[in-house]
Amino acid sequence: MKPIYARFVGIGILSLAAAALMFAFPAESSGQNPRWKGKIETGDGVKVVWNPTVPLYADVRYDLAQDLQIGTEDDDNYVFGVISSIQVDDDGNIYVCDIKLTRVQKYDKNGRFLATIGKKGQGPGEYDNPFEAFSRPKASNLFVRSNIRVMEYDSTGVYKTQTILRHFPNKTGADGDGNLWAVPNKVDGTKETRSVEKIGRDGETLWSSAVFPYERYRRILPSGGTVVGTSGWEFDVHFAVADEGTIWYGYSGAYEMTVIDKDGKTLFKVIKEGSKEPFGAADKKPEVSPDYKPFFYGLTSDDAGRIYATRANMMATAPGKPCPFDVFGRDGICLYTISLPRARVFTIKNGYLYTRDVAGQDDLPVVRRYKIKNWNSLKASADE
Prior knowledge:
Elements: E1 27-28, E2 39-43, E3 46-51, E4 64-70, E5 83-88, E6 94-98, E7 103-107, E8 113-117, E9 119-120, E10 126-127, E11 130-135, E12 142-146, E13 149-153, E14 159-164, E15 169-174, E16 180-188, E17 191-194, E18 197-199, E19 205-208, E20 212-213, E21 217-220, E22 226-229, E23 237-243, E24 246-251, E25 256-261, E26 266-272, E27 299-301, E28 307-310, E29 323-328, E30 334-340, E31 346-349, E32 352-359, E33 364-372
Parallel strand pairs: 3-26, 9-10
Antiparallel strand pairs: 1-2, 2-3, 4-33, 5-6, 6-7, 7-8, 11-12, 12-13, 13-14, 15-16, 16-17, 16-18, 17-20, 18-19, 21-22, 23-24, 24-25, 25-26, 27-28, 28-29, 29-30, 31-32, 32-33
């Protein structure tokens, strides 16, 4: 059986409150869209973009129409176990990283299977836990991370080289120079910390952000052992590579992000105002967790340079429920608040949204592609 094709239209808008750290800086003229109710100030020589609770364009949605679905149980080349990552190149080829079946499948823009990139193993170009696939902005090479090893392949799938990281990361990416960026998890006894690091091809740390605490819940068992768990409510460090030379990162204990160049120099800061959101009775708050919810749960980007801040804990979100996002322009202004379907694993490229989903009564894992019909009318900054 060939991959299934279907159609879907419509997506809603969800607006959430957020929070910011309160500082006082001398004001300066923003020179931005007069509809925007925020402000741009400077403190200690750093520009700070203050966003109000409501985005600039509160009445905009991403108009989606499904035009492709990949996945079937009748052909091994189209069978998925657990889709951990989806990557798309400039030609529209789709790379599906499958951590359960231990492979990376390549499909053309029409969903036709082309090749398997790499294979299971411990040798050069092989992997045992393909957590994620990614590429350099404006480049065709593919990176696949397996535990602490990052393999690089050329556009035809031929293995080139690998980098061995010194710590297990929760996310990796690459800038325009091919340097890796990661959030390594560092453990000292029971103390865990997170930061954003720029990593050279030899695994050496070239730049690091400030270090933030990462506190997972721990439970002492009657036997004396300790169970360490992750609920998704933990304050964490997140980052996204916006383009060849720009990276956004932030710690989710406050709605504040820092925008840097590929050398680690701060370009500006972004803050979104609002209130701390308390836990509700249905949130299944673990015994040890923050007193309030994180302000965001992840950062990612599209190929227009927009940044998407995840506004829901996907570990605690019911299957099939759309996920809300705040969308920031290249200038740091919050342009939209949107919701996307099945968006725990997704990529936006060339005016299309690619996301993992399930289909049928058996919950068959599939990849869905949606055409963003109003893509050309969406803004990438407030002054467009």
